């Protein structure tokens, strides 16, 4: 049994000068009888100084741009640091060459920029135990989390039970201090087993687990066989086994500092390949130093014990859990294990990374903050609030979303018109007010095909982030699991969509947001044959009185073009006649999914028919999308007048009438557009340049 003495403010005296610029080393004490979780001091760290474990995040508040003011900064300009395996090796060598004695938490200095309200994030490393696996994510995570990383020295022989007790005691201590805030635990490989074990023993604690390639599948891997043979391997020959871990742990090309997720030109690929091969040898050497024979035997023993312990207690894990699984993990069957755990854990979501290896967190294509945001797992209080806890998209995230709609924008070349205060219609968005709050009310095209081009163009041209009021299907865990890709809806959460509800609309208007609202909802987006451009709105007003309460500007708009893009082959009426469709229909509209996402069940008429269903489409030679934003309707100063239900109803009908006028105008005018067909647009661009603006009809 290992007993470790308490560390001091400068635990590694011989190396303090070299390490103090990178880390804050906490006090920690671990023994078989008494485990004292780290206690932070309130003094913020200063350059060139080591200190006890920090007591609270530094009082630097997160910059939260106001979405409703001129000059607002909508996009977050931060990005993941261009780091890779070299930085991991360098920082790991500093720690393993200096860290003697106890297991402890450390907090990288560059992470000390979070706000006072930020939650705590505990990082539990993989079998290496160093604790530097988040090196690529320090800057991004450090803005929204108070980060503590667990470091297990190479010569440490702390037992599994002692490690779990140490982590659990830290969680209990911080739970008392962080009243009302969740505690995040990011566990990688064996660290994921530790996280699950702590969660099973801390059911009354608000935990959020982020598990990266969890090692709960240990019994089904070749690691189990190696662990039984290592005792017979002489010392000089254990190094190749350690090196094997490194060779299989990841794609070295993807962990280089210059790797790009998209396709590369030959001149870009050659230096990246060279860097990957150059980094391989130091990585093999490092893992041999981190895992000498005795350490490797010890950690495989702990891994075996941890996996067995956790698998027998998965039923006790009820907290929010997000699993990140690599598709090309050569050490663990991470893809299959993630799906297995998702069926057992009641509050679990999975994100698959098909081209990634075991060292997922070191790969250049991954931004951990983006993954957490996309899954809707970032919160600072005991409940999820997608309005107050929303983190604006980064430039990189916006570029990724734009890339997804690149083909749609190319094929349809959307044209947008707006209406000035005097009623004059112009091309562009100059008629859109620059200040919020504002509510955009319009019609859905089939499958919501207008959403991507609309949101992207507003952000590019007006620097306005449209916050969509979306169907709850896009936020439901069970609904997500029906999709071919579990992350299909992540882009909507990243771009600010929230589930439809009165309270969410209230919160968005209260912070001067630009809100995108479709009264027709799923009924319009999943309309049947011959119903294009029909409005299926409720009879009674749903948004006018709320808008008037905040003096929001209502902007009616219409969009046409779906009938120039595809034909409906099979709609809901056709699908119901198919013998095999009944089971899918029940999954979508009954059971857990149907109960969670059913809307307007107490309404009458067509608007109550909100059944969710697929649609079979036949593509057409692409035409063009046309948007028209009507004259803004101001409600400021009309709050008392619009409290009257009759007056509110009259304005509601006025808005609906304006949307119908927009649709009629566009359908008539597009007939006069000489560039409605994609062929004529291609000819124009061939003669005038690919970046030239293609003309359209005169408004």
Shape label:
elongated
Count, helices: 25
* Termini separation: 82 Å
- Helix percent reads 25-40%
Q: Would you give an account of this structure?
A:
The longest helix has 25 residues, at 266-290. It is built from 25 helices and 19 strands. By secondary structure, the chain is an alpha/beta fold. The radius of gyration is 28 Å and the shape is elongated. Strands 9, 10, 11, 12, 13, 14, 15, 18 and 19 form a nine-stranded mixed β-sheet that branches. It has an eight-stranded mixed β-sheet with strand order 1-2-4-3-5-6-7-8, sandwiched between helices. The model is unreliable at 1-21, 27-66, 236-248, 255-264 and 272-282 (pLDDT under 50).
Outline:
By secondary structure, the protein is of the alpha/beta class.
Set out the fold topology.
Layout: H1 16-19, E1 23-24, H2 85-96, E2 104-108, E3 120-124, H3 138-144, E4 146-151, H4 160-177, E5 183-188, H5 190-201, E6 207-212, H6 222-229, H7 239-248, H8 266-290, H9 293-311, E7 320-326, H10 334-344, E8 348-353, H11 368-374, H12 395-404, H13 406-412, E9 415-419, E10 425-427, E11 438-442, H14 451-462, E12 466-470, H15 477-480, H16 490-494, E13 498-499, H17 502-510, E14 514-517, H18 521-525, H19 544-549, E15 553-560, E16 566-570, H20 572-575, H21 581-589, H22 591-597, E17 616-619, E18 626-629, E19 633-634, H23 639-643, H24 645-669, H25 678-688
Parallel strand pairs: 3-4, 3-5, 5-6, 6-7, 7-8, 9-18, 11-14, 11-15, 12-13, 12-14
Antiparallel strand pairs: 1-2, 2-4, 9-10, 15-18, 15-19, 16-17
Helix pairs in contact: 2-8, 4-5, 5-9, 7-8, 21-22
């Amino acid at each position: 049994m290992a007993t470790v003495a308490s560390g001091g403010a400068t635990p590694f005296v011989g190396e303090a000068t070299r390490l103090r610029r990178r880390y804050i080393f906490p006090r920690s004490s671990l023994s078989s009888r008494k485990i004292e979780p780290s206690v932070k001091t309130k003094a913020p760290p200063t350059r060139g100084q080591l200190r006890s474990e920090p007591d609270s995040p530094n009082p630097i508040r997160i910059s939260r741009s106001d979405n409703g003011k001129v000059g607002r900064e909508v996009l977050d300009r931060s990005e993941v640091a261009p780091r890779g395996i070299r930085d991991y090796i360098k920082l790991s060598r500093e720690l393993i060459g200096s860290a003697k004695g106890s297991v402890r938490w450390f907090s990288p200095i560059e992470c000390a920029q979070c706000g006072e309200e930020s939650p705590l994030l505990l990082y539990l490393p993989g079998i290496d135990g160093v604790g530097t696996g988040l090196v690529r994510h320090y800057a991004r995570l450090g803005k929204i989390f108070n980060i503590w990383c667990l470091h297990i020295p190479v010569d440490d022989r702390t037992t599994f039970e002692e490690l779990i007790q140490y982590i659990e005691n830290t969680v209990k201590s911080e739970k008392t201090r962080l009243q009302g805030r969740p505690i995040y635990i990011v566990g990688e490989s064996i660290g994921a087993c530790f996280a699950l074990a702590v969660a099973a023993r801390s059911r009354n604690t608000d935990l959020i687990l982020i598990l990266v390639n969890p090692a709960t599948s240990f019994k089904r891997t070749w690691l189990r066989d190696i662990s039984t043979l290592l005792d017979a391997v002489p010392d000089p020959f254990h190094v190749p086994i350690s090196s094997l871990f490194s060779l299989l742990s990841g794609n070295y090309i993807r962990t280089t500092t210059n790797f790009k997720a998209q396709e590369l030109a030959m001149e870009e690929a050659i230096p990246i390949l060279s860097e990957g091969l150059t980094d391989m040898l130091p990585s093999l050497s490092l893992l041999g130093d981190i895992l000498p024979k005795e350490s490797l035997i010890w950690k495989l023993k702990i891994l075996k014990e941890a996996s067995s312990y956790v698998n027998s207690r998965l039923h006790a894990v009820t907290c929010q859990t997000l699993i990140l699984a690599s598709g090309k993990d050569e050490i663990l069957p991470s893809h299959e294990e993630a799906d297995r755990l998702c069926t057992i854990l009641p509050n679990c979501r999975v994100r698959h990374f098909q081209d990634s290896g075991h060292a997922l967190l070191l790969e250049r294509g991954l931004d951990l903050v983006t993954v957490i945001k996309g899954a809707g797992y970032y919160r600072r209080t005991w409940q999820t609030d997608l309005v107050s806890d929303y983190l604006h998209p980064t430039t990189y995230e916006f570029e990724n979303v734009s890339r997804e709609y690149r083909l749609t924008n190319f094929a349809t070349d959307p044209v947008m018109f707006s209406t000035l205060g005097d009623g004059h219609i112009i091309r562009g968005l100059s008629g859109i007010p620059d200040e919020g709050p504002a509510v955009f009310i319009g019609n859905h095209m089939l499958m919501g095909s207008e959403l991507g081009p609309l949101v992207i163009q507003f952000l590019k041209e007006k620097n306005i982030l449209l916050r969509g009021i979306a169907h709850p299907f896009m936020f439901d865990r069970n609904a997500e699991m029906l999709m071919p890709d579990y992350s299909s809806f992540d882009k909507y959460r990243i771009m600010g969509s929230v589930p439809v509800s009165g309270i969410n609309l209230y919160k968005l208007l209260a912070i001067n947001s630009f809100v995108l609202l479709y009264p027709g909802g799923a009924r319009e987006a999943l309309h049947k044959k011959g119903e294009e451009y029909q409005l299926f709105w409720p009879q009674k007003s749903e948004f006018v009185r709320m808008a008037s309460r905040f003096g929001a500007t209502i902007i009616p708009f219409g969009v046409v073009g779906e009938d120039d893009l595809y034909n409906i082959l099979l709609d809901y009426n056709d699908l119901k006649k198919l013998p095999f469709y009944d089971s899918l229909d029940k999954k979508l509209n009954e059971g857990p999914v149907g109960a969670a996402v059913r809307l307007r069940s107490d309404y009458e008429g067509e608007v109550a028919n909100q059944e969710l269903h697929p649609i079979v489409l036949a593509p057409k030679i692409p035409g063009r999308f046309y948007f028209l934003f009507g004259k803004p309707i101001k409600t400021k100063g009309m709050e008392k007048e619009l409290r009257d239900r009759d007056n509110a109803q009259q304005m509601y009908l006025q808005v609906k009438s304006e949307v119908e006028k927009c649709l009629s105008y566009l359908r008539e005018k597009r007939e006069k557009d000489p560039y409605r067909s994609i062929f004529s647009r291609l000819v124009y661009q061939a003669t005038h340049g690919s970046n030239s603006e293609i003309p359209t009809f005169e408004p």
